[in-house]
Amino acid sequence: MRAIVISEFGGPAVLRLESVPVPDPGPGQVRLKIEAAGLNFIDVYQRLGLYRLPLPAVLGMEAAGTVDVIGPEVPDLEPGTRVAYAMHSGAYAEYAVVPAGRLVPIPEEIETRQAAAVMLQGMTAHYLAHSTYPLRPGQTVLIHAAAGGVGQLLVQLAKRNGTRVIGTASTEEKAALARKAGADEMILYTQADFEEEVKRLTGGKGVHVVYDSVGETTFEKGLRCLKPRGYMVLFGQSSGPVPALELTALARKSLFVTRPGLAHHIADRQELLARAGDLFQWMAAGELRVSIDQVFSLSEAAAAHRYLEGRHTKGKVLLIP
Question: What is the CATH number of the domain that holds 279?
């Protein structure tokens, strides 16, 4: 089969299309014929070596397709069943072997590419809005990169929970996408200081929570945007790792800082099915819109990474084997 393999850490050029053996499933595993794989910043972090994988490795933590071969001790799946998964490596390929417990059946109403596009980013938005900091009506939130893949979904979930959403984006085109998702106010950080704008928009009170996937360039100002007892939720670092934090600085406003990850929020199968089930239900009902921005072929993986790292995304980016 064809797969994108990295044999060293580095830039997009280390992503190489190779012919590798088709993997066979073991006990409790399923071989999936991949129809679409999702790109996420965790793929970039792994490619760079910030999150280290044993090499050589096939990247990709999210995909959707059909069950091809079932290994021993898998009683509840049949070949041909459409399924999706997240947080298991090896998706940049024509086939992947995945633990059966990680797979979520795709409802008839949901297209396969839409399922691939929502698993990792959608469940991330879900746990951020419902578990890390459960949003309530009347609260105000700041969402960085509000026009990105997670951003647009998080804006929609925040609005479902009755909150006022302030978002940031780099261009008016991206700001328009976030407003379409439901953002009440948008700040173009290339034209205005987002800290000053947040204070102006909140009458100097600040926001209840900051959702920050950007990291280095936004973190410290984001802390200053919080109201007393506010939450800084750092869930990514697209601009680089955040600087060291002196914990006594949090005491000035009794702030909370957390760095959650999706794996710990879907480790239990019931929780996985509940989060994915909510997303699929809202999508089928037209209450959650999943925006696919760009589709690249498997051989264009390096170009797809450059697009992602260049902060050009206006929704989900997919790789098609």
Answer: 3.90.180.10
